[in-house]
Amino acid sequence: QVQLVESGGGLVQAGGSLRLSCAHSGRAFSRYAMGWFRQAPGKQREFAAAISWSGGITYYADSVKGRFTISRDNAKNTVYLQLNSLKPEDTAVYYCAQGPYMVTTTRLTSRDEYDYWGQGTQVTVSS
After folding, report:
1. What residues are paired with 49 via a beta bridge?
2. What is residue 86's predicted lDDT score, i.e. its pLDDT?
3. What pLDDT is stored for residue 60 in this prediction?
4. Residue 92: beta bridge partners?
5. List of the chain residues with pLDDT < 50
6. DSSP labels for 49-89?
7. Cβ neighbours of residue 115 closer than 8 Å, sequence gap 6 or more
């Protein structure tokens, strides 16, 4: 059973930055694509970013492209999401999730493509 634990959320002013982390408990972490989603109050959970199993390929939602950066450290079983130039509309609970095994694409924007999820970490951006 895989467990994912997010951390790093908090309250930040508009224009500020945060770095989210997601610790993966499984031994095969380095073989799976990983993704970050977010869910704002009253809205559906939406895709934010994904990274290939090797870390060499990334993909972003248009709403975060150029501001957020996904990365991973396979030696530490951890995936990160660097959030820069934050806006009030980025306020949401952020979730990491495990994607497919050793796929060559990171265009994994559907929740159905992910099978394990963390509990989420709250990011609040004040104006």
Report:
1. 36, 60
2. 98
3. 97
4. 123
5. none
6. EEE-TTSS-EEE-TTTTTTEEEEEETTTTEEEEEE-S--GG
7. 97, 98
